[in-house]
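re: ur question from yesterday

yeah so i grabbed the chain u mentioned. its 466 aa long if i counted rite. heres the sequnce exactly as i have it in my notes:
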Amino acid sequence: MPSRDAAIARATDDFDSGAFRDRLAALVAIPSTSQDPAAAPQLLRYLEEGITPWLARLGFTSAIHPNLEPGCGPILTATRIEDPALPTALLYGHGDTVLGLEPAWSAGLDPWTLTERDGLWYGRGTADNKGQHIINLSALEAVLAERGGRLGANVKLVLEMSEELGSKGLRAFVGQHRELLAADALIASDGPRVEPALPTIAAGSRGSFMFDLVVRLRQGGVHSGHWGGLTTDPAILLGHAIASIADRHGRILVRDWLPGETVPPAIREALRGCPVGGGEGAATIDEGWGEPGLTPAEKIYGWASFIVLAMSCGNVASPVNAVAPEARAACQIRYTGDSDPARFEPALRAHLDANGLEKVAIERTGIRMPASRTPPDDPWVLWTKASMERSLGTRVQVTPNASGGLPGDVFVDLLGTPLVWVPHSYNGCKQHGPDEHVIPAMLREGLAAFAGIWWDLGEGGAPRRG
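ran it thru and got these structure tokens back, copy pasting raw so excuse formatting
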């Protein structure tokens, strides 16, 4: 007789047999980077060769649509409807990757070849996001096999190929296909766990607001001997502007950027006891950096951060004896869903002016990816947490949002779905850089968790919209 335990065993047996690894290796081998226009055919190939035949075997009806944004990759939709009266889960993923950065990978590793080394699986897309959406579909396949081809629920899928370009075109596309994509909840996977050994649910994501600080004073450089000490140095002025925005400990001084005086009580309660880790030498949690009085989890899941992404003034590789004409810094605010990004630029302008920095211009402002948030105690979040804890026999950490950016706002705003992100990666996976990798045991655990989610979805008792 079909059973929940047997369905989970099917999913993990698929992993143990090597079949899951082979499936992931075949998809990693497709160099589907959206950041190289020459690779555009590979974006379509990923959907046509790697995903669509598999979805057909699982009983989905799928279609590949051109992106409404020129120059961006296609979007796949797929539906598997058993009965419109049953609960419907919407899956999301992206098959595009960042650039391969081939020359920068460690000796013996290649971004487009899945390689096992020292207990890790290396390859571009293993963590972001091929490995993650493959887990969710593989678990669904196991449950369908255990139940003889019937799930007891409906599943829809959106798989985009321009997430690494900021999900350009996705909002317009979902807006045009609201009825096709209508669902009770989005249950999908991207991003890292709070730490490698702790299964995690994120109920949204932080947004990213970009801007440049620019000090532009003259047409060209002037002799440092004749003019140094007489004419304004743009780099010094820019340095003071940055120092006025955040103190030497990283505390944000433009307080209108923040969600309030401190982390809201409900968010603080959700993050109580939440660990942060997994950088494994790639980064450190530095005591005293950032907003005082907050835990590390509150700083990255419940607060804003200010980051200087790049700075330029003159030519550092070949400096000349001149006071430079211009200095520029590319900056970013990572913000939560309870902050108002419409206030960011005017608040910064007022702050700079109040500090005598009127010559510092603010340019190229805009949201790269909006923030999103579902309440951590939403019924779908709690239902998924209970399912995962039953399957894995361990506690699951819920965060109010992921620390990075995801296009969850599209689904909240246009479809009204709560967000349930179940990440299968970790902070030290080196996504976006050389040597991207995953921890195989984490993938296996993700398969077990999602097999349980799919089984429970078909058992009845899941929350319903409204």
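noticed a couple things. The chain has a mean pLDDT of 96. also The first helix runs from residue 4 to 16.
anyway ttyl
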